[in-house]
Amino acid sequence: MIIPYGHEQRSVRRLPWVTFTIMALCLVVFLLTLPGENRRQNEAFQQLDIALEFFIEHPYLELQPRFHDLLVSEMGEEVLTAQLEMMRETGPDPPDSDRALQIEQGELDTLVEKFFRILGDSPMRVLGMVPADLKITSVLTYQFVHGGWGHLLGNLFILFLAGPFIEDVWGRPLFATFYLTAGAFAGLMFVVRYPALDGPLIGASGAIAGVMGAFLIRYWHTKIKFLYWIFFFMVGTFEAPAWLMLPLWFFKELFFAQAMDTIAPGQGGGAVAFWAHVWGFVFGVIVAYAISHYNVEERFIHSTIESKITLVDNTAVEGAAQMAEGGNMAGAVDVLKKELAERPDNVDAAVALWNICYVAANVAPAVPHMLAAIRRAARTGDRDFVLTHWEDLTRSGASIPLEPTFGLHIAEILADGHRESLAGETLALLDGRIDSTTPAPVQLRLSRLAIAVGSPEAAKIIDAALAHPDLPPEGRSELETARMAFGEPSPLPQEEAEEEAEEFRHTLQTMSAIPKGISGETLLLEINGKARTLPLATVQAVAVCGIARASEPPVLLIDLLLDSPWGDREIIRAVRLLSNTFDPRALVGGEDAMKAFQAFLKYVLEISEAVPLPDPDSARGKPFRSFTTIGAYQAEVLNIIP
After folding, report:
1. What's the whole-model pTM score?
2. Higher pLDDT, 188 or 621
3. Which of 46, 135, 329, 354 sits in a 20 to 30 Å window from 81, CA-based?
4. How many CB atoms lie within 10 A of CB 243?
5. How far apart are CA 142 and CA 532, in angstroms?
6. What is the pLDDT of the chain when averaged over all its residues?
7. Which residue pairs from 287-290 have beta carbons closer than 8 angstroms and sit at least 24 positions apart in sequence?
8. d(CA 302, CA 310)
9. How far apart are the first and last CA of the chain?
10. 342 and 350 in contact (C-beta within 8 Å)?
């Protein structure tokens, strides 16, 4: 069995109230209808037993068409026919008097009618969609009725995974209209398929299938996380893109819909309304494609969507985002800096400023504000924010003014979040900042944490603690014992270092190219005005960085290295791509240029299996390293000395 449990999209700009309201309504309706449904079902089954018992005692009587169809749905035509023949052959003979026969037939009909009357008053039939007795209100009400806890919770979980993200990009009014319309369309198409069905269609799955179809189009490349288990002993997780898994789900539903029609024609697919799922999904795909094709989000929605934190008016953030999209990065930065000067606690503004500066490969203006936002998050217990944004901050290469107490707090959060390596790197940022003014208890905790996470600065941190006059005796004894495990590093002799540097000195030969497309495992390029192809399997390493040029706008540089920079080849060939020459959205889709660059690099790295430089995170833009000049990048990353 395979069950989705999450995906790459982790945040929305504001609370998804429509999705939460739908979920709450489904739960409330279920709780209100469950007692009455159970009571009516019990009464109906008791009445059914009475009617069947009477018929068994009088098998020569005629069955009402509705009653006959009900028995066929439960037993099958052939089984029911055989049973009736046997009962009539072995049962009592009909009375001699036609009057007596009419009375018995009337009594059976009365019992059957009472059964159907009780059944018809059940909440599922009142609120559900019965194709044979269609009520116009049922196209909406059926979407909020569920037949059991499993049915309800399964639907709500899938809605929770997909709904908030479609609501976030489409806005609340459009999403609410879309959701209800998808459910109505799915239900009506089910009625078209089974017009004579006398059972109720219930559940939100038709509407949710529409949301899944919309998610496929809107988040085409998003990886969905799955949990699987086989025979209860093979358990694990995996990730796969939406463009693969959601169509597979759709074709599975289509297969079962057709199979159930073959096995039990006209019975509505058994206990699962497969055709409602199929048509709901198709509706979602069509609507989402139309919205994308006609740029509805950009033209009518984005400018009116509220901010991510609904308790804060983020007009400045929205305005800055529009300026950045228009290419006015400097203006966007000024707007956000002014907003943060007036409202330092506006987390959205701090994150937006960081993202814009990050794209511009100049994060220095954003560092103080992001540091303040992280400090506030650490203080209020928002560990997810710390885990996400501290890594971005440290990987940026920016200078971080970190004092020991705050550094300890951050490192402890990282260690608790199983990010021991990053915790060790954080402690390394405190090099030279731990002295006698740092409280002894803080130094003791720093030392213990440095040992626990294997920080490269553990020995220095311990030495600083041991030099503190107020270190408790038991703590001093503990650290003295621990310090014995660390030895002094042996520096490489100057002569050997120079020889080693000479051994790895290369010449770089670059070919400037413009990406034009991706075809399977091949990158389509334009080089000197001519079309060329580059098999990604020939790429040995991928080096990525931002270049903050002095007199020109910053640029993202991508070198596809055809020769490894650590080998003995004198000339290293590189296909060089610059972000100011192409739009990654034309290659991988999407609306956000930054995410498109990351998706493009991720694709190249996965297909080529090349070595990411300067490191795996930087090469994937998490975040990009920044250099002042191309020469500085080539010297540090590729060891190319001019």
Report:
1. 0.49
2. 188
3. 46
4. 14
5. 57
6. 84
7. 287/178, 287/182, 287/210, 287/213, 287/214, 288/213, 288/214, 288/216, 288/217, 288/218, 289/217
8. 15
9. 58
10. no
Please choose, from the candidates 638, 632, 620, 624, the residue with its C-alpha nearest in 3D space to the C-alpha of residue 550. 632
Are the C-beta atoms of residues 166 and 218 closer than 8 Å to each other? yes
Tokens encoding 572 = 């290293």
Question: Any idea what DSSP says for residue 628?
Answer: S
Distance of CA 299 to the CA centre of its chain: 25
Confirm if 3 and 226 have CB atoms less than 8 A apart: yes
According to DSSP, the residues that pair with 533 across neighbouring strands are 524
Q: H or E segment at 640?
A: none
HSE-CB for 44 with a 13 A CA cutoff: 16
Q: What is the pLDDT of residue 287?
A: 96
DSSP line for 439-459: -HHHHHHHHHHHHHHT-TTHH
d(CA 247, CA 278): 11
Strand partners, 2: 228
Q: Which residue carries 């640029």 as its tokens?
A: 555
Task: Look up residue 300 and give its two tokens.
Answer: 């009518």
Q: Find the length of the chain.
A: 642
Contact by Cβ (8 Å): 112, 44: no
More confident site: 207 or 93 = 207
Instruction: Give per-residue pLDDT as tens, 450-497.
Output: 888 888 788 888 888 888 887 888 888 888 887 777 654 434 444 444
Q: Note whether 20 and 236 are within 8 A (CB).
A: no
- Beta-strand runs (E) in 385-485: none
CA–centroid distance for 23 within its chain: 19
How do beta strands 541-547 and 555-561 pair? Answer: antiparallel
Given this model, what pLDDT does residue 469 score? 83
- Quote the radius of gyration of the chain (alpha carbons, Å): 34
